[in-house]
Amino acid sequence: MAGYFTNILGGAKSLVVGLSITQRQFFKKPITLQYPWESLEMTPRYRGHIQLIKNAESGTHQCISCGMCEKSCPSDCITIKGEKQEGVKGKVLVKYELDFTKCSLCGQCIANCKPGAIEFSREYNLASTRKEDFHYDLLKRLKEQK
Amino acid sequence: MDLGINVFEMVIYLVGFIAFAAANAAYLVWVERKGAAHIQRRTGPKEVGPYGLLQPLADGAKLMSKQFIIPAGVDRPLFILAPILTMVPAIMIFVTIPFSETILARDFNIGLLMILAFASVNVLALLMGGWASRNKYAVISAARVVSQNIAYEIPMLIIVITIVLISGSMNLTEIVAGQAGGILHWNLLPTNGNFLGPITFIIFFICSLAETNRAPFDLGEAESELIAGFHTEYSSMGFGLFFMGEYANIVIAAALTTILFLGGWYSPLPESIPYAGASSVVWFLVKMYLLIWLVVLIRWTYPRVTLWSLLNLSWKILIPFSLFNLLASAGLVKLLG
Amino acid sequence: MSSQPLSQNQERFELNLGPQHPATHGVLRVKLLMDGEYIVDAEPVLGYIHRMHELMGENRSWAQYLPNMGRLDYLSALSYNLGYVELVEKMAGIEVPERAEYIRVITTEMNRISSHLLWFGAFVLDLGGFTPLLYAFDDREQILDLLEAVTGSRLTYCYYLFGGCYNDVEDDFLSGCLAFVKRLRTRLPMYHNLVTKNVILRQRLEGVGPVSAEMCRKYGATGPVLRGSGINYDLRKNEPYSIYPELDFDVPVYPEGDSMARFMVRMDEMEQCLRIIEQAIAKIPEGPVMAEKVPKMIKPAAGDYYHAVEAARGTFAIRAVSDGANQAYRMKLRSPTFSNLSLFQEASRGMLLADGLAFMGSLDLVIPEIDR
Questions:
Q1: Of chain C's two ends, which shows fewer C-beta atoms within 10 Å, N or C?
Q2: CA quadruple B141, B144, B150, B152: dihedral sign
Q3: In this predicted structure, what is the pLDDT of residue A98?
């Protein structure tokens, strides 16, 4: 019989404690960020789709068209094409296409890039209703980049 | 009696109470959403109007513009009737509630009885809605709602009988009048003859939570078990009416608790104190909305009970306590004379 | 069924729980045979999110299989990363620098906490309490921010490489982790007051869904389910890997075997994770995070390899058969909740529907990992 009453009292106490916690939280400031009006800066290591790194001095990329990124990609996202051109040592990159619809951002291409020509971008709010919008021409993107 | 003025008065009151019920239902949704948001450290609705105050109107417009889907194979008449049947008794009940000495539509001798009678129609509506939906989740939900409401009507009625015993009347105005003169004369405390005092208030409050199917007793809705319970198949205003009915019932439950235990429109201070001691509709609304806030806070704090612990609570704790209180209060009332 | 007399059948009905149902947290379907509110029989039906991860492992190189590890159990992706990376290192005989090992342990344990926090929120949500979910997400968000700064992603991590980690961590990350440890130490008592001690929750969990040690052995249940049934079995202690032997932590074990025991195991495990993180940060040495000589093309000697780690939900094991090529000949992933789910059918018989769902929540299912 005593257990009956202590059970009720103990239970009631736990309920009151719960209410006091939520009521106290009610008076605290919200912690959420109102997204379209405010947004966070992406961290430097954020993994967006890959892009060619622009060399500040030469104004161009450092890709040697070795094709390691293409080969290491688990999902065949990358298509590159290098051409022999007169007067230039090695191959010149003429096409670097990325199919971002298949990319899982594993970073294998970047880890396998000898000259360090590619990096992750910080693009995070990509949206489209068309698949083709995510087929990037990275060379074109590099040219448009300031 | 001047019939013309009487009819005019009736129409005014009817429109007034429907508007009051609808506005309360709409804005309690806002309170619930905003309150829940801040309890959870979010902001809640804020885009539609200042502080999201126009959100209920937008929601209403959205619900009304949607198609009322009647799934194949449902029991059509019952399916359509059920949501109406949740809202109509709720508005009817508002007729009997005295908000102050002057603001009441009808002063019934048996107002309390009428409220309880109409409130139990709600169960029937939920049962009908669940049964007619031709959905297994809805049927399970309907069965739960019925067993829950029957279990909780008993302690609730025993408490109500105790209050009737103390005030000697079923007229709500007279019940409130019996509690005049400050907090010490409220039925909340044993001074009026209510032996267990605050405990009966808590029992009544728990019962009204269960009767209105509010968390933690929202077994009928149980969104993580039964999708949406009895209104799984309802869309558009069919769902809207169930939703509004729920909030209208919360207002009624809070108002009834205020009348029975918290001295209705009387101030908690003695009447000798100027302004603060005066009785007015403001006190009634303050008490009522504080209770409603408690209902909201409870919903966003506790997990849901299961059917058996719900029934255990009623039969093993609430009913023994309220029965004991009935006997003890009868003795106390006799002693106080 | 028509051959049976109607009077026997009429009381029972089939209830299709899922594949879209709020309590299954994914595309799990459970065919329930109900007698009123009671579960007579429950048959989990899988295959709605099968992606052939094992087959994928057999037709791509070892390195190319790395991103798949983040997509099995997406809530504790780093444990899976760790398991796979350590297996391949074992096969190819790659030495991992010590700093990388410490980083791996710190990030994995952070990930384990975030997984448990999400489970905690979702579990209380299953029981009808909405608010703890948002509080847990608040804490989880801190972890995701910290991990994002290091790994670059927030959910499907692909951070470990054969022979080390993708990049080094800054002191900011380590001090951020310490600040988080401090923060969670003040939050956990709040969770206990709000949830664990709550009488309604106790009534719903205590004695519900008892799973005996016997049943765990029979179905191969691991992780918190096993430890909630009184068996002290944690791979971090029993088959130590990485630097776990150097760290001092306890394995919470509760003998009751009910949902409450599983709940408490996970809550206590979070505290132990905090201890691990603290010690690891105190001990972390300077140095490189990548082994110097990692072959570009990994071609392990032919043979049968096995490695298991303790993921947030139990034993995650990989068995890989190599024929000496750059890819696996056979890849078998052993995911913990597949075994944990398989005891649901036996254990849930005779339960109320609400209790059955609470029991299912206490198993902490992640469907993509069951289906692979």
A1: N
A2: negative
A3: 87
Residues with Cβ within 8 Å of C57's Cβ and at least 6 positions away in sequence, in order, are: C65, C68, C320, C327, C328, C331, C333
Residue of A nearest to C131 (CA): A22
| Separation between Cα atoms, residue B212 and residue C209, nearest integer Å | 30
Which of C:119-138 have CB within 8 Å of A?
131, 135, 138
B42 and A CB contact within 8 Å: yes
Please state which CATH number belongs to domain C7-371. 1.10.645.10
Per-residue model confidence (pLDDT) at position C274? 92
Q: Which residues does chain C have within 8 Å of residue A10's beta carbon, measured at their own beta carbons?
A: 199
Distance from the Cα of residue A63 to its chain's centroid: 21
Q: Which of B136, B306, B307 shows the shortest C-beta gap to C13?
A: B136
Between CA B43 and CA A34 the distance in angstroms is 9
CA dist B253 and C278 (Å) reads 52
ipTM (interface predicted TM): 0.82
CA distance linking residue C135 with residue C130, whole number of Å: 10
pLDDT at position C3 over 50? no
pTM of the model: 0.88
Closest Cα to residue C353, out of C115, C25, C33, C139?
Answer: C33
Tell me the CA distances in angstroms from C75 to B288, C68, C79, C81, C270, one per residue in order. Answer: 45, 13, 9, 12, 15
Q: Give B-chain residues touching A34 at CB under 8 angstroms.
A: 43, 46
pLDDT at B99: 81
Q: Do A112 and C296 touch (CB under 8 A)?
A: yes
CA distance C179 to chain B (A): 21
Residues 22-61 of A with CB under 8 A from B: 22-23, 25-26, 28-32, 34
Q: What is the CATH number assigned to the segment(s) A50-144?
A: 3.30.70.3270
Closest-CA residue of A relative to C203 is A11
Q: Which of B42, B215, B303 sits opposite C204 (nearest CB)?
A: B303
Give the C-alpha separation, C155 to C71, whole Å: 9
CA distance A137 to chain C (A): 23
Which residue reads 């068996």 in tokens? Answer: C231
Residue of B nearest to A14 (CA): B302
Separation between Cα atoms, residue B259 and residue B257, nearest integer Å: 5
Residues of chain B falling short of pLDDT 50 = 1
Q: Provide the pLDDT for residue C180.
A: 92
Domain boundary assignment for chain C: 7-371
Residue B123, min C-alpha distance to chain A (Å): 27
Task: Assess contact for A61 and A55: CB atoms under 8 A.
Answer: yes
* Confidence grade of residue C4 (pLDDT, cut at 50, 70, 90): very low
Angstrom distance (rounded) from CA A125 to CA B288: 47
Q: C16-25 contacts: CB < 8 A, separation 24 or more?
A: C19/C48, C21/B227, C22/B223, C22/B224, C22/B227, C23/B224, C23/B225, C23/C126, C23/C357, C23/C360, C23/C361, C24/C360, C24/C365, C24/C367, C25/C122, C25/C365, C25/C366, C25/C367
pLDDT, average across residues C77-103: 89
| Window C:196-215, CB contacts with A under 8 Å | 197-200
pLDDT of residue C117: 92
pLDDT on residue C2: 40
**C108 token code pair:** 């994995």
Sheet holding C38-45, edge to edge: C12-17, C29-35, C38-45
Structure tokens at C153: 């992603």
Question: Hey, are the CB atoms on B317 and A8 less than 8 Å from each other?
Answer: yes
Mean pLDDT in chain C? 87
